[in-house]
Fold this protein.
Amino acid sequence: MTGDNIDDFNASQTPEDRRICEVLRQQIDRALPEAESKIWHAHPVWFLAGNPIVGYSKLKSCIRLLFWSGQSFQTPGLAPEGKFKAAEVRYTSPTEIDSDRLQAWLQEARGIQWDYKNIVKRKGRLERLV
């Protein structure tokens, strides 16, 4: 795990958003210790075998937690995002983070992956990895 500049990203947020980011980072790091974490497209993202799994970003009014394969998860609470398989949840306070649900999503993220790493090579077509 590298974490390139994730500390800087988190530190640049407002105090409330920083607390959200810190909770998310701690929980993601704990659940996915083998993942590579780095700033990707200006946001913290965790990868397994080069495939993006989970990340968070600052939106105007919240912190968005995004799971690239989240639309395939069974644990409720995520909203579809975009035209592929991603799903999200948005937080405005660290007290909104349900640790049990987050850990369930993170476990599903390890076991349910769509191949975003090769999406360009496949001309926008996703294939299920696991």
About this structure: The domain at 6-111 is CATH 3.90.1150.200 (Aspartate Aminotransferase, domain 1). The mean pLDDT is 91. The helical segments are 6-11, 15-31, 99-111.
